[in-house]
Design the sequence.
């Protein structure tokens, strides 16, 4: 790939995490609507720039909340160059994919990504962690995948935006939901903690410092999250009723809540 510069739109916690890893490979430019995003950050090889400069880079990463994708696309659209690769890094893929495909000019490549980690889970490095790659309109995604594997040791999973959202409604949406419930129940017992409880709290700690906006985006903008929450709540309610009504252990076999899983066309 003939990429020498990367522009990051949105310099929050995740934008900074991206810059930390990419600045060793490319000249990185970053833009944020708030100048405070750069306060206290040691820029090293990252250049704080205006939206025009960032959008004219060889690759542009939209590191903004899902509900800000449309505005970010409108901001960069006038300055994009033919052959530029535009990425997003949101935790929901179908809606951003549709917006980028409909609104971005036909002469740019579009690849949706979702790093399945964040600043907390990446504190010890990202080698061995997973990233979802959604080729929306791109002839470059295989080279991008190879770069991510070779340079950072990431495990790349190529999926469609729909397949991504179906799976992460469970693997991410449910994890965030349970984690937030545990956090809201604090203070929790500390002396007689079992190994399984420690694992639950580790999961809760990984989402503890995520913003409310991230949580709401995962729950509201993923079209499959509502059904997943409903299934989880129905299963919990059935077990609660069984325990409260004096059911037996044998009765538990009849409490499973079944829901047909949506299907999406697989990629690659």
Sequence:
């Amino acid at each position: 790939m003939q990429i020498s510069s990367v522009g990051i739109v949105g310099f929050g916690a995740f934008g900074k995490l991206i810059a930390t890893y990419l600045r060793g490979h490319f000249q990185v430019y970053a833009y944020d609507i708030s100048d405070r995003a750069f306060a206290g950050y040691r820029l090293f090889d990252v250049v704080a720039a205006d939206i025009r400069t960032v959008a004219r880079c060889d690759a542009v990463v939209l590191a903004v909340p899902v509900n800000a994708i449309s505005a970010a696309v409108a901001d960069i659209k006038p300055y994009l160059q033919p052959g530029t690769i535009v990425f997003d890094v949101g935790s929901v893929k179908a809606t951003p994919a549709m917006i980028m495909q409909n609104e971005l000019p036909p002469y740019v490549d579009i690849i949706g990504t979702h790093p399945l980690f964040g600043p907390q889970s990446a504190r010890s490095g990202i080698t061995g962690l997973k990233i979802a790659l959604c080729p929306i309109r791109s002839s470059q995604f295989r080279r991008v995948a190879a770069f991510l594997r070779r340079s950072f040791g990431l495990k790349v999973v190529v999926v469609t935006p729909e397949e991504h959202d179906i799976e992460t409604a469970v693997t991410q949406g449910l994890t965030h939901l349970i984690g937030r419930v545990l956090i809201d129940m604090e203070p929790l017992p500390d002396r007689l903690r079992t190994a399984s409880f420690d694992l639950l709290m580790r999961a809760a700690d990984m989402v503890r410092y995520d913003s409310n906006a991230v949580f709401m985006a995962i729950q509201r903008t993923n079209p499959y999250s509502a059904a997943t929450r409903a299934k989880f709540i129905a299963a919990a309610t059935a077990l609660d009723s069984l325990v409260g009504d004096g059911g037996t252990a044998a009765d538990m076999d009849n409490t499973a809540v079944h829901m047909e899983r949506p299907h999406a066309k697989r990629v690659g």
